[in-house]
Design brief:
With 491 residues, the protein is an alpha+beta fold. The protein has 23 helices and 15 strands. A hairpin with a 3-residue loop joins strand 5 and strand 6. This is non-specific serine/threonine protein kinase.
Amino acid sequence: MGCAISSRKGKLDGNRHDVDSKGSIKPSAFVAENTNRLTDIYKLGKLLGSGAYADVRICYLKENGAKRAVKIIKKQSLSGNNIRQKIENEKEIIKSLDHPNIIRFYEFFEDAKKLYIIMEYSNGSEFFSQILQNESYSEIQAAKIMYQIFSILSYLHDKNIAHRDLKPESMLIDKDTLKVIDFAEASVITTRISQKVGSLFYSAPEVMFGTHTTSCDLWSAGVILYILLTGYHPFSGINDDETLKNIKNIKYTTTGKIWNQISSLAKELVSLLLCDHSRRISANDALHHPWILNFTQIFSPETPIISSALENLKHFTNTSVLRDAVHFFLTMQRVSTGDIKILGEVFKKIDKNDDGKISKQELINEYTNTLGVIQAESEVEKIMKEVDTNNDGYINYTEFLKAALDIRKMLSIENLRAAFRNFDKDFSGRISVLELKRVVSERNLLSHKTWTEILKEVDLNCDGEIDLIEFEKLVLMKGQAETEENADDKN
């Protein structure tokens, strides 16, 4: 029971519904600055790629050999006087991203000369390299790729984020799965802005010659689509000046031998993307364009995989702020790429409108297949209360992963001790109230008194802090109880 008396237990165990939305936990809380030296935590591996201002290398987590990638940004190569602002902007945007087709980010390191961004390692190749190997793509291949690009853009634009440098070089592709890996030029845009950014060959005319909004990304997507269908760039000239002139005048062709073999719907979509920004369609409209709908064959996960994920969602219980924080950490930092890929496909199957989040109605529709409407609605009401941690009315990607994963796979001693170290910021072997606030509540909107009361519930020896034994008991004992309860329910 901890140090709190039993009559207060319902309130003090940190139940999310008592704590309220101000104490909600976001995935971004676990994409944080690591104050250690990079080489104390990771072993650097081979160079994967090199650019004007950054290199990307393989790296290995020394603790368990987990393979990741690190983007090493050279501060001196960043232009302008606002280097710090540019770095902080990229970090804040990265922390806010949570989508199946966006590379997962783990943590940041920084020293006097470089910023290090630790991210998911992908076996995929650079999308640009794959394009070079193919003269052109079939329409169904192109549609599968563009569907993912439009889904990413729809998600970003819903958050008022413009990528502003969308190009194949900033993407990886593994078989048919595409992921965007670079957000160096991304910006939150709430009004038209004037700033020349991005790569000439993919930049919209309003970026080069006027003011732009998030719609500039749809132009870039149109250039990519054109290249996939034909194998060449729509505005390429004999030099940069001629290319720039073609872009300004929106001068390109959809006639000739290659275009005679391309469907009229594909041509129409190109024309709706490579046009003046006032007529350009949105990412959401592009997702539902007939060409995308006709040619996209979305991967459908096997029924047992879907059933298992839906069953885990039904039995997920968010009993404690602390346990929820641990689950978020394990989901963000310790789940295998293979598990994430499988569940990512399930997520996309449920997310029928491709906006990067699951609505209550989308979930009801999925459960109705096996439960019927009335029971499905009842189940989904319970699921939303437990899984929608940030109370925005949707189940976001990481919220879904956290609840759909088999908890038994995650609650290893190794994983729990890694989670404990994440909370124990001063490496004292104990978690204090201040450390708890720092990790769990990004904005520290809950009072110090509230966090003290929450801590008391697991502080078995009443010393005002949580040690490793208390931490493991908090998660393992309740985790085992839930596992047994869920097993009983299934029998």
